[in-house]
Amino acid sequence: MGHLQLPPGKKIAVSLGTDFDSQCLWLGAYNRPTPSSMSRGEFGAEVGVPRLLSLYKRYDVRTTWFTPGHTIDTFPEWCKKVLDDGHEFGHHGYYHENPTLISGETERRLVELAFSTFEKVLGIRPVGYRSPYWDYSESTLDILEDSGLIYDTSLMGRDFHPYHPQRWQVRWEQGNVAGRASRILEVPVSWYLDDFPPLAYTGSSIGMQDSDTIYRRWKDIFDYAYRNETDPVFATCVHPQIIGQANHMLWYEKLVDYISGHEGVWFATIEEIARAWVDDETDEAKFALPDVRGVEPAPADSGWA
Predict the structure, then answer these.
(1) How far apart are CA 193 and CA 204, in angstroms?
(2) Cα distance from N-terminal residue to C-terminal residue, the chain
(3) CA 206, CA 191: separation in Å to the nearest integer?
(4) Using CA atoms, how far apart are residues 216 and 235, in angstroms rounded to an integer?
(5) pLDDT tens digit string along 38-94?
(6) What is the DSSP secondary structure assignment for residue 148, as one 8-state letter?
(7) Fewer CB in a 10 Å sphere around the end CB: N or C, the chain?
(8) What is the DSSP letter of 140?
C-alpha cells in the first residue's frame, strides 16, 4: 500500500471535517419536512456555522465542508462565508439522498444536480465526495470516477490510513472476490468520530449522550494514532446543527486546543491529504485486477431470500 507524504516536520494529518447538511438532512435521511425539523437545520446554518468558523479562525484551521446542493441553494450566503474563510467544499449529494435506495440513473442525476449548484452559486467544482449515507450503491464508484473526482471519504476499510477502494464480488457459500481498485483515493470515515449518532436526538436513536464521553473517545483515538501509527490521518465529522450547540462547542474547542498542543500536527483539508498520497506497486497491482463485482442472490435456505 502507498503512503502519505506529510510536509516536513509533520507527524500526523488532522482533518476536522464538517457535514453541512442543514435542513435536507431531515428530508433525505428521515422524510421529516416538519417545521421543527426545518428549524433544527436552520439552527445549523444560522448559529452552528458562525460558531464553527469563529473557532477554526482562532486556531488557524482549514477544514473540508461536505455540503449537499440543497444546503447551498437554501443557505447560499453562509456557504459563501465558508468559502471566503478558505475552507474546502466536498460533494455530499443533493438532498442527502440514500444511494442504496435509488436507481443508478437517479443517483447520477442528483450528483450532477449538486455539481451544477456548486458551479452556479459558488463558482467551484469539488474534487472529493462523501456519500450522504456513508454507503455506496452498485453505481456509486462508477459515477465518482466518471465525474473526475480524486478522493472519496465514505468507507471504512481502514481507520488511520487512506487506501484505494475495490469492487467486490459478494458470494454467500464461497469467499468474496476482490476486484479492480479505483484510482480514487479513499480517506476513511468512522462512526466513532461522527458527532451525530451519539449526540443528536432523532426520536429513534440513543443520542444526547454525555459530552465528556465523546471528548474522551475522540481524544483517545487521536492519542492512539499519534503514538502508534506512521503518517496517520485523524479525520472527524461534525454537523453544525449538532456540534454548534453551546455545550458541544465547549468540548469540541477543548479537543481542537488539545490537538493543537501536539508537535507535528498538520491541520489539512482532505484535498490536501489526497494530493499528498503516493501510490506504490501494491496499489498499481490492484488497479490491474479484473473488474469483478456484484452481489449474488441469497441462498433459498439462508433466511434472507
Answers:
(1) 20
(2) 37
(3) 14
(4) 16
(5) 999 999 999 999 999 999 999 999 999 999 999 999 999 999 999 999 999 999 999
(6) T
(7) C
(8) H
Amino acid identity for residue 264 in this structure: G
pLDDT in tens, 204-215: 767 889 999 999
Place of cell 464508484: 141
* Global model pTM greater than 0.90: yes
Look-up of cell digits 474547542:
253
Closest CA to 146 of 117, 112, 102, 186: 112
The grid coordinates listed for 281 are 506497486
Neighbours of 300 (CB within 10 A): 8
State pLDDT tens for residues 171-224: 999 999 999 999 999 999 999 999 999 999 998 767 889 999 999 999 999 999
Q: Provide the residue count of the chain.
A: 305
H or E element in which residue 90 lies: strand 88-91
Confidence at residue 304, expressed as pLDDT on a 0 to 100 scale:
95
HSE at residue 150, side-chain half, CA atoms within 13 A, is: 11
Residues 6+ apart with CB under 8 A from 154: 129, 130, 131, 134, 135, 136, 186, 189
Q: Distances from the Cα of 98 to the Cαs of 28, 92, 93, 107, in angstroms?
A: 7, 11, 9, 9
Instruction: Give the whole-angstrom CA distance, residue 230 versus residue 193.
Output: 20
Residue-averaged pLDDT of the chain: 97
Greatest distance between any 2 Cα atoms in the chain: 59
